[in-house]
UniProtKB/TrEMBL annotation:
PANTHER family to which the protein is assigned, alphabetical: CYTOCHROME P450, FAMILY 706, SUBFAMILY A, POLYPEPTIDE 4, OS08G0547900 PROTEIN
Highest taxon in the source lineage: Eukaryota
Name this protein carries in UniProt: Geraniol 8-hydroxylase-like
Keyword Membrane found: yes
Stretches that traverse the bilayer: 22-43
Organism: Heracleum sosnowskyi
GO biological process terms on file: coumarin biosynthetic process
Length: 383
């Protein structure tokens, strides 16, 4: 087919320049050129209909601005803002990125127009870690996302739920402080113990499985390594994300590595859910996992909640609630150790008070009523 087309075009071209009828050849040539010009004009106008992209640094073919990115992204974006204005365009391979450097524009994007900018492209590593982008982070904005958010806010993060685990948090903090006190004079890993404390609190809220005793340090170290590996793979620049056409080849092996790490988490979740299902009805307390398992059995729901959705949601809770919190505490303690003067910066007239205040208020079925008597109302008794 290709050879026949090539032969036809060659014959036509030869005829055009060898024909005796020069006027006819000229008309044909002019017509072809006119058609090409019209197509080019229509195409250029159709492109101009779309709003122009914001200004930004010059990009190279294929790679865009990838080679000019600075590891200190916040300072790099600030310098771009000073040069190109509050909104900057960057080409990241075959994808375009928009950088916002203005509080006014940030409010417009993140609050006023949040539903328009709510969706995110699922990276290759995130796709494997969240069971195909089924979690609350990567799920497209819509009824499914609102259902997942409602489950988290109303059950996991509600004020009543957080208040009910106040004793648990106090107990875990005391146990962590006891661990540090027992190792006075010896080096300790603050980040590891903070991570383990948060893991115990979150896993207890989800399925009641707090790690204690001799398994405390060992499991905490293993669990933290897995979470760190997941966050590291999610933050690794991946060619597959910048060039979606190359994603199938997994040139850096990021997707393959994430499959291995995610499998470890999946095995933990499967074993825990199986154990919780076997214990169903034996305990009086209901944890977050039991509530989610009941949602998966609800066949009348307009938006089905599957076991895959359940595990993806647990993945968000464990990774998002442990690693980020432990890192924040670790950096805060390091800052206070390196700059002890910041601890002394209290409001004028106030003193540092670390004493605990804890109490319980019980409401009576029949409220007590104070009835003053003539004897109690005698002012002379209080002089």
């Amino acid at each position: 087919m290709f050879q026949e087309t090539k032969t036809t075009l060659t014959d036509a071209w030869s005829w055009l320049f060898n024909t005796d009828d020069f006027a006819f050849a000229f008309i044909v040539t002019a017509t072809v050129l006119l058609v090409i010009a019209l197509i080019t004009l229509i195409f250029s106008k159709s492109k101009k209909i779309s709003p122009p992209l914001p200004p930004g640094p010059k990009s190279l073919p294929l790679v865009g601005n990838l080679l000019s990115l600075d590891p200190e992204l916040h300072t790099y974006f600030e310098s771009l803002g000073k040069t190109y204005g509050p909104i900057v365009k960057l080409w990241l391979g075959h994808k375009v990125g928009i950088v916002i450097n203005s509080p006014v524009l940030a409010r417009e994007v993140l609050k006023d127009q949040d539903t328009i900018f709510a969706n995110r492209d699922v990276p290759a590593a995130g796709y494997e870690a969240t069971y195909g982008g089924k979690d609350i982070v990567w799920t497209p904005y819509g009824p499914k996302w609102r259902m997942l958010r409602r489950v988290c806010v109303n059950e996991m993060l509600s004020k009543s739920t957080l208040d009910s685990f106040n004793d648990l948090r106090r107990r875990e903090i005391r146990e962590t402080m006891g661990y540090f006190y027992s190792r006075v004079g010896s080096p300790v890993d603050i980040g590891e113990q903070t991570f383990l404390t948060m893991m115990n609190v979150i896993t207890s809220m989800m399925w009641g499985g707090t790690v204690k005793g001799d398994d405390r340090a060992g499991l905490g170290t293993e669990f933290r390594l897995v979470v760190n590996e997941i966050t590291q793979l999610l933050g690794t620049p991946n060619v597959s994300d910048f060039y979606p056409g190359l994603a199938r080849f997994d040139l850096q092996g990021v997707r393959k590595k994430m499959k291995v790490v995610a499998k470890k988490f999946d095995d933990i979740f499967e074993a825990t859910m199986k154990q919780r299902q076997e214990m169903d009805g034996q305990e009086g307390s209901t944890d977050f996992l039991q509530f989610l398992l009941k949602l998966t059995n609800n066949q009348d729901a307009k938006i089905p909640f599957t076991m895959t959705d359940l595990k993806a949601l647990l993945m968000d809770m464990v990774t998002g609630g442990t690693d980020t919190t432990s890192n924040s505490v670790e950096f805060a303690l390091a800052e206070m150790m390196n700059k002890p003067q910041i601890i002394q910066k209290l409001p004028e007239g106030q003193k540092l008070d670390l004493s605990e205040k804890f109490g319980i208020v019980l409401k009576k079925r029949i409220p007590l009523v104070l009835i003053p008597t003539p004897r109690l109302s005698n002012p002379e008794l209080y002089q």
